Amino acid sequence: MIHALRKLLADRRGISSIVFAGSSLMLFGFGSMAVDVGSFFYQKRRQQTATDLAALAAAADLERAVNAARASASRNGFSASAVETVQTGTYTPDARLAPDARFRQGSGPAANAVRIEMRATTPMILGRVLAVGLGGDTGDVAIVTRATAAQEAQAAFAIGSRLARIEGGALNGLLSGLLGTSISLSVMDYEGLARARIDLFGFARRLATRATISALTFDEVVRANVRIGDVILAAQDAARDQGAGSDAIAALGRLAAAAASTGQRINLQSLVSFGSYGSRQLSEEVPLKASLSALDLVSATAQIANGARQLDLGLAVNVPGLAAVSLKLGIGERPVGTSLVRVDRAGASVHTAQTRLLLTLTLVGSGQASLVKLPLYLELAAATARLTSVSCGAGDITSSRVTLGVTPAVVDAWIGQVSNAEFSNFSTRPNPPAATLLDLLGLAKVTGRAHVTISNTSETPVSFSYAEIQRADKKTTSTQNFVASLLSRLVSDLDLRVELLGLGLPIPGLGGAVSGVIAGAAAPLDQVLTSLLNTLGVGLGQADSWVSGVRCGGAVLIQ
Fold it and tell me: What is the C-alpha to C-alpha distance for residues 531 and 169, in angstroms, rounded to an integer?
């Protein structure tokens, strides 16, 4: 028996068949695994696609989100019961929030997004044979997929100018200086320009024709370098298309004729950003409006055209207590990638340009302080309007509402001697020394310095109804009368010093006389500064914003 067993163990015949049988079983197992893994990932991709489509369908119809998601799943080869959860909520596309914190579950009119979870099983193919043969279960594998989608709501919004008062003389001087030509329009002309609305998509089409731009899309038009005269003529064409008044159309014609002599070329990327519609063909229709008044468009074009970013302007004033006023204006660049008008989704923002003003005022006094020069330097940082939400009523566009978060500009104000080099250098903020307010040659000199900062950096929500959007109503964000408080604070902070020159004798009461002249001129200063700021379209601690178009419907995947 033992001998027979030893003989069997020593016999090598048939060993290859045994090894082959064992290897075949192993190879079959690995092959089964490869086939099943491939099938699993294929099914998961297929289910994820169906989940994405279900989320898009539910977000586009939030009132019936569950039914929309289940119907979409059925259309894409899954049972309605595979849609396990449907959660509506609010999605906030704010980069400052962690991705997981941007979606918050909830219902109600603020809801704008939906989160979907689908669960289904997929059978193992070859591995199922092994699983059942070895006494296991059926070999089915559960697949869970998730997707989040938000409504594709967009709005056209802007931040910029204020036109509470229109003074033809000041505006003529301002536009003449910015454009480098001579502008002479009446107050009625400017009022007509302020009333005329220009659709910026139509304007881009007209500009492509006027400037013979070989552009196919809206973005290509605003990137092109075009003559200022062509810009204003295209605005005239667009205003005529919109049925603007004859006064506005005639005024644009006179402006175009004056600007034609400059021959200067600009691009309009800092004027308007068309967002996702920028890649559309010029021949395509756009489902919302983005508009500006003709005066806003001309003013913004003039600021873009002013390559030197600085101009000097003498202002004709007829205000008691003021003998003369001169203005130096500097306009910085807008923050990179921003514009005056923007078409986009919630989370986008627009900014004003940084602005600097140096007002040199000659104040009328009496006696030895008969003429006092007061240099008033103002620096306004960029104000910001952020599109925080677009609320769309179910099937009723007239119930839609757009909310902006508006942050007015920080104001830095000085009475001091700002040099031309400091004024032109926007990379640093001036810290000027005391200015000479009164110089009695050979006797004495009075210098003064004051500094006030006004900040209103908290974001204020500003809401626009559909009717206000249709009219493109402007709303001012402000908490107080900054002009009056600024001047009073500057006067109270003013540090006056009297310097005797040579062997001059002390002049009793000279400092008090100068201080009295400045304090007495606070009211006319307030009047001049308010009017000037209105003309320039800027505000101290204030920001004007408006919405000119809204689009509801559709959805986009966000996770």
Answer: 12
Place of tokens 């009333």: 195
Q: How confident is the model at residue 222 (pLDDT cuts 50, 70, 90)?
A: very high
Q: Is 320 helix (H, G, I), strand (E, B) or coil?
A: coil
**Token pair for 58:** 């539910």
Query: What's the rounded Cα separation, in Å, for the pair 230 and 221?
Result: 12
- Determine the Cα–Cα distance for residues 231 and 207; give it in Å rounded to an integer: 6
Question: What is the residue type of 7?
Answer: K
Q: Give the C-alpha separation, 408 to 540, whole Å.
A: 8
> Is residue 163 very low, low, confident or very high in pLDDT (cuts 50, 70, 90)?
very low
The label of the residue with tokens 């139509």 reads: 202
Q: DSSP string covering 149-191, please? A: EEE--EEEEEEE---S---HHHHHHHHHHHHTS-----HHHHH
The pLDDT tens digits of the residues spanning 143-162 come to: 888 888 887 788 999 987 55
Distance CA 155, CA 287 (A): 10
pLDDT average, residue stretch 86-112: 78
If you count them, how many residues does the chain have? 559
What is the amino acid identity at position 307? Answer: G
**What is the bridge-based pairing of β-strands 341-344 and 272-273?**
parallel
Q: Please list, residue by residue across 410-436, b when 16 or more beta carbons sit within 10 angstroms of its beta carbon and e when fewer do.
A: bbbbbbbbbeeebbeeeeeebebebbe
Residue 59's pLDDT band (boundaries 50, 70, 90)?
confident
Q: Positive or negative, the Cα torsion across 189, 191, 192, 193?
A: positive
Nearest to 314 by CA among 350, 349, 361: 361
- Strands 349-351 vs 83-91: parallel, antiparallel or unpaired: unpaired
Out of 116-125, 199-208, 344-353, least confident range: 116-125
* Range 238-252 average pLDDT: 92
Tell which residue, 425, 454, 422, 424, has the closest CA to residue 435. 422
| Residue 443 exposed, middle or buried by CB count within 10 Å (0-12, 13-18, 19+) | middle
DSSP-derived 3-state class of residue 132: helix
Q: Which of helix, strand or coil describes residue 89?
A: strand
pLDDT surpasses 90 at 315: no
- Show Cβ contacts of residue 229 under 8 Å, excluding neighbours closer than 6 positions: 256, 257, 259, 260, 262
pLDDT for 168 beyond 80: no
Three-class SS state of 548: strand
Task: For residues 546-555, give the mean pLDDT.
Answer: 85
Residue 236: pLDDT band by 50, 70, 90 thresholds? very high
Arithmetic mean of pLDDT, 273-296: 90
What's the confidence (pLDDT) of residue 164? 43
- Measured CA to CA in angstroms, residue 71 lies from 53, 79, 117, 122, 145 at distances of 10, 9, 14, 21, 17
3-state SS assignment for residue 242: coil
Q: What are the residues facing 197 on neighbouring strands?
A: 293
